[in-house]
């Protein structure tokens, strides 16, 4: 459930073929992103660089921006109003942007190949659920490409307007999928879905929209939805992402939790928080960070993006979280002689799924 940039030239134009996500436990592992900046003087020779390392200058800038935001948070009398109107503000967002926010996530196949195991002709009966579906950015690519007659895709969103958009899509087929309104942070799983019936849950730029007080409810619901051995694929905002640092005054609701100009909310995570959230109930198969340096070569502007990515599997019956199950799809390779584990997962090539704060100027990415 993520807003999208309406800039005519977006970061989506910058295509990637390899990963720029790196396992947080192997920061010195061999990088799989193909665009590495080794000569700072060459920074403006292309539009994007993978595995962007931060120096003290960037770290200090980020700390200064957070300190600035803390001086002028959202007025206390408005904080509860923003929380109470969360669903209404998402409805307004989708009403305003009805024909603008569909993003064909070509990167899904690269990033989360497990999803596309579900669509193979001989995969058998499979259930996938896109949580925070927006316009059906995962649902429709899967259904369009699927050769599996036994695949069923559920799509749910906090916003009733978003669900209406999905149902009005010409590709929507009630025989192959079902869209409905549901709050991930609610007290229970939706009545449209049986407990422990999902093979894969898709959680892309969704958890960040929830109030931190409701994260535990979300984790419990995810656990109830998944089959034993089922998988969550996750992508969301990382701490000190450019979008966070650009927020102006009166946008900070609480630590690292903001309200955009359109009233929608967003949180910026650290990897340790993701471990704490998912690690108590799920086996963490991937915990990665994607640091990307986007540049405007015309204006000589540098833009640092940070996203977190993970894959979390529900243990089989009798197994404890953290113990790899026999259904595990490995995303790393262990080298000999105790060498470090290298994350070989593939990564996002359409960061336009991660918008700037509403009202912020979007720097052009033209060459």
From TrEMBL:
It is an enzyme of class 2 (transferase). CDD domains: AdoMet_MTases. The keyword Secreted does not apply. Residues 1-10 have a biased composition (Polar residues). It is found in: Cytoplasm; Nucleus. It catalyses: cytidine(32) in tRNA(Ser) + S-adenosyl-L-methionine = N(3)-methylcytidine(32) in tRNA(Ser) + S-adenosyl-L-homocysteine + H(+). PANTHER family: METHYLTRANSFERASE-RELATED, TRNA N(3)-METHYLCYTIDINE METHYLTRANSFERASE METTL2. This is tRNA N(3)-methylcytidine methyltransferase. The lineage of its organism: Eukaryota, Fungi, Fungi incertae sedis, Mucoromycota, Mortierellomycotina.
């Amino acid at each position: 459930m993520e807003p999208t940039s309406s800039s005519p030239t977006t970061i989506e134009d910058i295509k990637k073929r390899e990963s720029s996500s790196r396992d947080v436990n192997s920061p010195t592992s061999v990088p799989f992103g193909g665009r590495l900046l080794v000569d700072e003087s060459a920074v403006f020779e292309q539009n994007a660089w993978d595995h962007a390392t931060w120096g003290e200058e960037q770290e200090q800038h980020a700390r200064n921006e957070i300190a600035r935001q803390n001086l002028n948070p959202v007025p206390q009398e408005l904080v509860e109003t923003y929380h109470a109107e969360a669903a209404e503000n998402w409805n307004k967002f989708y009403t305003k942007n009805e024909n603008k926010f569909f993003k064909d996530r070509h990167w899904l196949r690269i990033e989360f190949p497990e999803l596309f195991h579900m669509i193979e002709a001989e995969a058998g009966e499979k259930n996938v659920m896109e949580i925070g579906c927006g316009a059906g950015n995962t649902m429709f690519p899967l259904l369009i490409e699927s050769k599996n007659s036994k695949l069923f895709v559920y799509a749910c969103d906090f916003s009733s307007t978003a669900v209406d958009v999905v149902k009005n899509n010409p590709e929507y087929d009630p025989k192959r999928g079902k869209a409905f309104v549901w709050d991930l942070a609610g007290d229970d799983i939706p009545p449209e879905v049986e407990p422990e019936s999902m093979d894969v849950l898709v959680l892309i730029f969704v958890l960040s929209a929830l109030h931190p007080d409701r994260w535990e409810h979300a984790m419990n619901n995810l656990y109830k939805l998944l089959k034993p051995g089922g998988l969550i694929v996750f992508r969301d905002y990382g701490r000190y992402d450019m979008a966070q640092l650009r927020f102006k005054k009166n946008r900070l609701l609480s630590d690292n939790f903001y309200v955009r100009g359109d009233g929608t909310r967003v949180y910026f995570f650290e990897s340790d928080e993701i471990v704490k959230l998912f690690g108590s109930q799920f086996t963490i198969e991937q915990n990665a960070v994607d640091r990307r340096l986007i540049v405007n070569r015309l204006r000589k502007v540098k833009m640092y993006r940070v996203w977190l990515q993970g894959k979390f599997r529900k243990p089989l019956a009798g197994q404890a979280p953290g113990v790899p199950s026999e259904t595990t799809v490995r995303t790393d390779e262990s080298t000999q002689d105790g060498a470090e584990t290298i994350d070989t997962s593939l990564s996002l090539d359409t960061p336009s799924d991660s918008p700037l704060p509403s009202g912020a100027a979007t720097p052009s990415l033209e060459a």
